[in-house]
């Protein structure tokens, strides 16, 4: 029998219940006990829902309040020194994720601890907390290990689940050496780590588990032969130590390639592969697994919202069944459904207002059903699910022939693009002289990345406007007041290049999507981004184009309030693409070019309106990078071209800024150089400074603002610590090129901490000016 399985279900709840619970806990509105009880309920609902869709292997241990990698680290005692004195429990876990700051009280000293580093999970927009390992790291399994607890919780409900854990190799190699352990070769910790996995497996076996899913996503990366050899010894060892369990090694987001070589004689019971991202790997993998090993087919896109073409998926699955026999085949989503929204049940507006498009969609709940239909067809013949297959075929065809997905004018404009549209008129050194002359700024200019706190009032006003409780005039009036407030605050803080604060934007991609043709919006298509934060990616279903200016009114109004330069804020084409659910019927590169033309028009309008600084954010350019280096060039060519197409239509004196939320550029440095921005602001507050060295080695000569503080934490950084960072930056960046700014937008923060942080930040710039005067 082919099993209908799942790798992970979204943990956020059908209506973002987890987010609300966690935030209420942070705010002291609910107790730890209430938090736990609510989570028990949520998990039960998730399991029952998957069961109701017809899945036979349902994951457990996939729930998390903050991040599953963080939970895994804590379960294995990988807790950085600085958090170890805190009492075990949710509060400590949240502190690791968010940092913690508490004023001194009569009984307690003040607490001020920086969060652990957060990183994008492969090429997704999900962020994980990077495990920090020490040279003399000790691993041990926490009492009431979460994985065992949740398995038992499901068992008590009569649901036999497949526990999911992060595998030892991915755990180590996705982590980093703690500050006190520089130079630590992470893989050397393996012998110390494995006994703890063994203990966990013993507990799971004792609890009655049989299949255990071990996620080893690094198998989709370029890993060395030495690491592949470690996979072999590790799994031979672990399978021998846990004879009662069947291990399913899960890979996703790309092809396993030759890393598959260890599987055959590793003793593992099965392998999961992503056949959405890499359908061509099926044959190779079938030829390279052992005689009895199970192959789990990732046929349903866990990263997107479109219905699966069931006929096509079935065909692929039939190949596998023909080669392996039905007992050796599982059907599954391509990856954990963590990256897909929860359920279409609450998409009421789309269902009634746009039934054509609604009919093309499948969220997690519906994807589970698709898994079931495929497995059922394989087990009992296509006739047994005739109605489901017919209905699916009808909607796939309807989408294919829909007149709403193509626009002839857009296609023509794309055809007509010429190389000159991808170049500035002069090289940066020439532009810089003209820019400084035309628009002089103090040395070490200060700026922010764009957004200011999205306060309760702002969200409330937007909600009222959306619901029709206030009219457009009242809403725009409100936004104008917010902009004016934000400008005044920045003037008082003595920031040099101001922003309007993005109060009118709920989300940096959705805002533009709402104003572009070819996009549509869900009400409830939320996915986890980091911590309690969820995003609701807009949906690109058709050819994208701009009909009206999108940001001119707000930017021009903001500029009218100040004599300081106002920076126009746009989201770049690659980021719009990357943070949307993208149509899968034309290449991503084409969608990206369509977006680029729309942004290019907006840049031109801003310039025409007298805006001198224009920032085109591309925080997502790196996460779009393919997982394998052989695929880099192809992607970077079209991605950077799209950025250039959107930004180069301006005069030399117009200053193009771009922003990225990371600083891990080593492998894409040439692409960053080719983007040819005048000012680049990047994340740098958590990563170490050495990365900046790459800028000088690669001869990067444009202006840079490596973030001097981490906006993901509510912690207020002191002037002293930021000044130290800036001083360290000056070792790598010539002083005329250094900007002083936070590492990302401030929208998730509160005004109090923002004011304090920015006051300290401006003091850094003043100190630097004084020192160099
Ligand atoms: N301008 C955006 C903001 O400040 C940039 C956000 C981002 O890089 N993610 O919110
Ligand atoms: Zn950012």
UniProtKB/TrEMBL annotation:
List the SUPFAM superfamilies. UROD/MetE-like
Positions that bind L-homocysteine: 449-451, 617
Where in this chain does the record put each Cobalamin-independent methionine synthase MetE C-terminal/archaeal domain?
444-766
The residues the record assigns to binding 5-methyltetrahydropteroyltri-L-glutamate are 19, 125, 533-534, 579
| EC code | 2.1.1.14
Gene Ontology MF terms = 5-methyltetrahydropteroyltriglutamate-homocysteine S-methyltransferase activity; zinc ion binding
On cofactor binding, the record's note says: Binds 2 Zn(2+) ions per subunit.
Q: Cobalamin-independent methionine synthase MetE N-terminal domain: which residues?
A: 4-320
Q: Which GO terms describe its biological process?
A: L-methionine biosynthetic process from L-homoserine via O-acetyl-L-homoserine; methylation
Q: Which Pfam families match?
A: Meth_synt_1, Meth_synt_2
Q: In which pathway does it act?
A: Amino-acid biosynthesis; L-methionine biosynthesis via de novo pathway; L-methionine from L-homocysteine (MetE route): step 1/1
Uppermost EC category:
transferase
The protein's matches in InterPro entries, at most eight in alphabetical order, are given as: Cbl-indep_Met_Synth_N (IPR013215), Cobalamin-indep_Met_synthase (IPR006276), Met_Synth_C/arc (IPR002629), UROD/MetE-like_sf (IPR038071)
Note the CDD domains from the entry. CIMS_C_terminal_like, CIMS_N_terminal_like
Where is L-methionine annotated to bind? 449-451, 502, 617
Which sites bind Zn(2+)?
659, 661, 683, 744
Q: Which residues are responsible for catalysis?
A: 712 (proton donor)
Question: What cofactors does this protein use?
Answer: Zn(2+)
Task: Please provide the record's keywords in A-Z order.
Answer: Amino-acid biosynthesis, Metal-binding, Methionine biosynthesis, Methyltransferase, Transferase, Zinc
What family is reported? Belongs to the vitamin-B12 independent methionine synthase family.
What does the UniProt function comment say about this protein?
Answer: Catalyzes the transfer of a methyl group from 5-methyltetrahydrofolate to homocysteine resulting in methionine formation.
| Protein name per the record | 5-methyltetrahydropteroyltriglutamate--homocysteine S-methyltransferase
* Annotated organism of origin: Linnemannia elongata AG-77
């Amino acid at each position: 029998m082919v099993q209908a399985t799942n790798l992970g279900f979204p943990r956020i709840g059908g209506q973002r219940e987890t987010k609300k619970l966690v935030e209420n806990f942070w705010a002291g509105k609910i107790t730890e006990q209430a938090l736990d009880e609510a989570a028990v309920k949520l998990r039960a609902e998730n399991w029952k829902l998957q069961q109701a869709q017809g899945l036979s292997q349902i994951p457990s241990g996939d729930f998390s309040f903050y991040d599953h990698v963080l939970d895994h680290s804590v379960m294995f005692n990988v807790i950085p020194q600085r958090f170890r004195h805190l009492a075990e429990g949710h509060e400590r876990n949240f502190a690791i994720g968010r940092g913690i700051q508490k004023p001194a009280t009569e009984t307690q000293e003040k607490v001020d601890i920086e969060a652990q580093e957060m990183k994008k999970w492969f090429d997704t927009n999900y962020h994980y907390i990077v495990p920090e390992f020490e040279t003399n790291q000790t691993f041990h399994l926490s009492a009431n290990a979460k994985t065992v607890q949740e398995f038992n919780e499901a068992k008590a409900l009569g649901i036999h689940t497949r526990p999911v854990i992060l595998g030892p190799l991915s755990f180590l190699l996705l982590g980093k050496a703690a500050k006190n352990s520089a130079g630590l070769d992470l893989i050397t910790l393996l012998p110390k780590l494995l006994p703890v996995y063994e203990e966990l497996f013993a507990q799971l076996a004792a609890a009655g588990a049989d299949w255990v899913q071990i996620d080893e996503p690094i198998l989709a990366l370029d890993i060395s032969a030495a690491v592949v050899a470690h996979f072999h010894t590790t799994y031979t060892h672990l399978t021998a130590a846990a004879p009662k369990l069947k291990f399913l090694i899960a890979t996703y987001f790309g092809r396993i390639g030759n890393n598959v070589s260890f599987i055959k004689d590793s003793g593992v019971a099965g392998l999961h592969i992503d056949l959405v991202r890499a359908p061509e790997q099926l044959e190779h993998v079938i030829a390279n697994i052992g005689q009895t090993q199970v192959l789990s087919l990732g046929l349903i896109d866990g990263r997107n919202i479109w219905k699966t073409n069931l006929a096509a998926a079935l065909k692929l699955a039939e190949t596998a069944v023909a080669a392996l026999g039905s007992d050796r085949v599982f059907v599954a989503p391509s990856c954990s459904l963590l990256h897909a929204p929860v359920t279409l049940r609450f998409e009421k507006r789309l269902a009634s207002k746009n039934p054509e498009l609604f009919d093309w969609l499948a969220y997690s709940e519906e994807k589970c059903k698709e898994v079931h239909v495929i497995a059922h067809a394989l087990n009992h013949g296509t006739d047994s699910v005739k109605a489901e297959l017919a209905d699916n075929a009808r909607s796939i065809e309807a989408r294919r022939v829909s007149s709403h997905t193509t626009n002839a004018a857009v296609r023509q404009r794309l055809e007509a693009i010429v190389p000159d549209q991808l170049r500035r008129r002069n090289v940066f050194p020439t532009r810089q002289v003209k820019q400084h002359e035309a628009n002089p700024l103090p040395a070490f200019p200060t700026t922010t990345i764009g957004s200011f706190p999205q306060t309760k009032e702002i969200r409330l006003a937007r909600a009222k406007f959306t619901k029709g409780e206030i009219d457009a005039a009242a809403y725009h009036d409100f936004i104008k007041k917010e902009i004016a407030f934000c400008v005044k605050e920045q003037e008082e803080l003595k920031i040099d290049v101001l922003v309007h604060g993005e109060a009118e934007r709920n989300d940096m991609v959705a805002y533009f999507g709402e104003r572009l043709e070819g996009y549509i919006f869900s009400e409830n298509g939320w996915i986890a981004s980091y911590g309690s934060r969820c995003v609701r990616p807009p949906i690109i279903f058709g050819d994208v184009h701009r009909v009206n200016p999108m940001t001119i009114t707000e930017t021009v109004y903001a500029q009218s309030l100040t004599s300081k330069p106002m920076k126009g804020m746009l989201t770049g084409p690659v980021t719009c693409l990357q943070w949307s659910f993208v149509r899968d019927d034309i290449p991503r590169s084409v969608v990206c070019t369509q977006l680029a033309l729309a942004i290019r028009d907006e840049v031109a309008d801003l310039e025409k309106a007298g805006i001198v600084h224009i920032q085109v954010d591309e925080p997502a350019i790196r996460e779009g990078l393919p997982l394998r280096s052989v695929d880099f060039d192809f992607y970077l060519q079209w991605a950077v071209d799209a950025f250039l197409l959107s930004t180069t239509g301006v005069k030399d004196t117009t200053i193009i800024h771009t922003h990225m939320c990371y600083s891990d550029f080593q492998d894409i440095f040439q692409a960053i150089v080719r983007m040819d921005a005048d000012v680049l602001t990047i994340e740098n507050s958590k990563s170490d400074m050495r990365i900046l060295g790459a800028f000088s080695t690669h001869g990067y000569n444009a202006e840079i603002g490596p973030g001097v503080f981490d906006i993901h934490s509510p912690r207020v950084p002191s002037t002293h610590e930021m000044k130290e960072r800036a001083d360290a930056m000056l070792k790598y960046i010539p002083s005329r090129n250094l900007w002083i700014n936070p590492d990302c937008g401030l929208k998730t923060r509160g005004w109090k901490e923002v004011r304090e942080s920015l006051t300290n930040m401006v003091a850094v710039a003043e100190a630097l000016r004084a020192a160099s005067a």
